[in-house]
Amino acid sequence: MREQGSLAAFRRTVVNSARKKILFLPHAIRQMSRPDRMITGQDVRRVVLRGEVIEDYPEDVRGHSCLLHGIDQEGRPVHVVCSPKPEFLAIITAYTPDPTEWESSFKVRKKSGASDL
pLDDT tens, 35-68? Predict the structure, then answer.
């Protein structure tokens, strides 16, 4: 994970790209429209503009990207993976986090493996 100042600067880049345009990639649309999720474009915009960067992926093959955590209008936690570009913000995927994989805040992945016993 990068230092907090760098994350804050990257967060500003994400928001600035989103204010220009948000582009939903096909995978994101498929994931958002799953019956068990039903995440709207407005939900994603809310997470992008108000959420928190919880994971940073500077070496992503699609370009520097990050995982954002936020809350939708119904109070559900939502995760959004996005990558800022000069003219738009690419939404790679959006989903409701699985409580078996995330701590109760949905901001930290649970440790896996036998060492957890």
Answer: 999 999 999 999 999 999 999 999 999 899 999 9
Q: What average pLDDT does range 68-97 have in this prediction?
A: 97
Closest residue by Cα to residue 48 from 26, 28, 66 = 66
CATH number assigned to the domain comprising residue 61 = 3.30.2310
Is 110 among the domain residues?
A: no
Cα–Cα nearest to 97, from 36, 35, 33: 36
State how far the alpha carbon of 76 is from the alpha carbons of 31, 38, 44, 48, 55, in Å.
16, 11, 12, 15, 19
What domain range includes position 93?
4-98
Mean pLDDT check: name the lowest of 4-18, 47-61, 78-92, 101-115.
101-115
Total domains in the chain come to 1
Helix (H) or strand (E) run with residue 19 in it = helix 4-20
62: number of Cβ within 10 Å: 13
Q: Is residue 50 part of a domain?
A: yes
